[in-house]
Recover the amino acids of this structure.
C-alpha cells in the first residue's frame, strides 16, 4: 500500500547529507506501487524526482512535487542454468555492491571491477557507472523502464541507451522521462578478468596478493583488491558526507594536450577513443591549490582533491565552492570542469 508523506527531510537519502525537504515523498517496492505513485502525481500535476541511494545528487534546494525513492527488489537468473552466458534481471532497488557480491557468490562473473560503487542498480545506467577499467555498458544486456508521462512500460537495448563516459540517453534526450525498473546484465560462468587498469594491476602485482600468480587471480580476489584500493583512496560517505568524484575527467584534443604539456610536463592524461585525451580532474584541482581547503562547512577532501565533502554546509555552499574551483582550473589550465552528480537547485 503506497504511503505518500508530506514535507520529508532528505538528509538521510543523500550521501552528501545536504539539507533538503521533499514536498511529497514515497517509497515504491513494486512496479504496481510505482504506477500508483506516477498516476497520483499526474493527477495532481506535480513534478516528479526519482531517488535511488542519493549518492550522485546535489540537493541544493527543497524539492517541489513528489520524490519517489525506488526500492524495487529482485535478482533472478533469466538465462538457462547450464548456459555459460548468465543473463540476470536485477530490480532497480537492489544495492549495487550487494549485487556484485551476490553475483560473485553464484559464480556469475563480470562485475568484480565495479565493486563498492555506492547506489542502487536502477541508477547504474544513468551515468553508465564505471571503475577500474570496466563500465556498466560492458556488461549491459537491456533495461526495463516506465515512461513518466504515460506509465507505458518499455524495454531498451544497449544501442537505445547511448552509453558514453559517465553518460547515457538518460542524461540527454531521455532526461527525467523514464523510471528504470529493472536492469538486465550479461555475465559469464567463466571468469574473464579485466586487469589492465594501472592501479589495479599494480595492486595485484605488489601488494597484499604478492605471491599469487596470474592463473590464481580469481574474480573474488579482483573484487577484494578493488574494494581495498577504493577504501584507501575514497572517503566513506557514512563517515564523511560526499558524492564520490565531483567533477568528470575532462576530455581534450591532442593539440590542447601538447600545448598544456609544454607548461605542465607532469600533466596526467589517458588515451581516449578517437585520439582525444582524458585529463585527471583531481590532478587539475590539486594543482590549482584546492586540496584540503574548507569553506562555509564544505570542502575539498584532504587526500583526494576530486571529492568535495560536506561537514555542515548546504547544497548552495557546495555549488559555490565548486564554482570557485571550476573558475580557477579554467584560469590556470584553460580546461572546463563539468560537475558529475545531478544538481537539483531551484
Ligand atoms: C564514495 C563514492 C564513490 C563513487 N564511485 C563511483 C565510481 O567509481 N564510478 C561511478 O560511475 N560512480 C561512482 N559514484 C557515483 C554513484 O555511486 C553512482 O552514480 C550511482 O550509480 C548512483 O546511484 P544512486 O542510486 O545513489 O543514484 P541517485 O544519486 O539516487 O540518483 C542519481 C540520478 O539518477 C536518477 N535515478 C536514480 N534511480 C533511477 C531510476 N531507477 N530510474 C531513473 N532515474 C533514476 C536520479 O533521479 C538522479 O538524477 C560514487 C559515489 C560515491 C558517494
Amino acid at each position: 500500500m503506497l504511503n505518500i508523506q508530506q514535507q520529508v527531510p532528505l538528509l538521510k537519502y543523500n550521501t552528501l547529507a545536504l539539507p533538503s525537504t521533499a514536498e511529497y515523498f514515497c517509497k515504491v517496492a513494486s512496479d504496481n506501487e510505482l504506477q500508483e505513485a506516477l498516476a497520483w502525481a499526474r493527477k495532481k500535476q506535480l513534478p516528479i524526482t526519482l531517488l535511488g541511494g542519493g549518492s550522485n545528487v546535489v540537493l541544493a534546494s527543497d524539492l517541489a512535487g513528489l520524490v519517489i525513492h525506488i526500492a524495487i527488489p529482485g535478482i533472478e537468473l533469466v538465462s538457462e542454468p547450464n548456459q555459460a552466458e548468465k543473463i540476470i534481471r536485477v530490480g532497480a532497488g537492489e544495492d549495487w555492491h550487494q549485487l556484485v557480491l551476490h553475483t560473485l557468490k553464484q559464480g556469475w562473473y563480470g562485475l568484480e571491477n565495479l565493486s563498492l560503487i555506492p547506489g542502487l542498480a536502477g541508477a547504474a545506467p544513468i551515468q553508465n557507472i564505471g571503475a577500474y577499467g570496466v563500465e556498466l555498458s560492458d556488461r549491459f544486456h537491456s533495461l526495463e523502464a516506465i515512461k513518466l508521462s504515460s506509465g507505458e512500460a518499455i524495454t531498451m537495448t544497449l544501442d537505445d541507451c547511448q552509453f558514453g563516459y559517465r553518460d547515457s540517453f538518460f542524461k540527454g534526450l531521455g532526461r527525467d522521462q523514464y523510471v528504470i525498473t529493472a536492469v538486465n546484465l550479461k555475465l559469464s560462468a567463466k571468469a574473464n578478468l579485466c586487469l589492465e587498469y594501472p592501479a589495479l594491476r599494480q595492486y595485484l602485482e605488489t601488494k597484499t596478493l604478492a605471491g599469487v600468480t596470474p592463473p590464481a587471480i580469481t574474480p573474488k580476489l579482483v573484487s577484494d583488491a578493488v574494494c581495498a584500493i577504493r577504501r584507501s583512496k575514497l572517503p566513506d560517505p557514512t563517515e564523511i558526507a560526499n558524492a564520490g568524484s565531483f567533477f568528470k575527467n575532462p576530455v581534450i584534443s591532442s593539440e590542447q594536450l601538447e600545448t598544456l604539456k609544454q607548461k605542465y610536463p607532469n600533466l596526467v592524461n589517458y588515451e581516449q577513443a578517437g585520439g582525444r585525451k582524458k585529463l585527471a580532474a583531481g590532478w587539475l584541482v590539486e594543482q590549482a591549490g584546492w586540496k584540503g581547503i574548507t569553506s562555509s562547512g564544505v570542502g575539498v577532501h584532504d587526500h583526494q582533491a576530486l571529492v568535495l565533502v560536506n561537514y555542515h554546509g548546504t547544497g548552495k555552499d557546495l555549488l559555490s565552492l565548486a564554482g570557485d574551483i571550476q573558475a580557477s582550473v579554467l584560469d590556470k589550465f584553460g580546461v572546463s570542469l563539468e560537475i558529475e552528480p545531478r544538481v537539483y537547485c531551484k
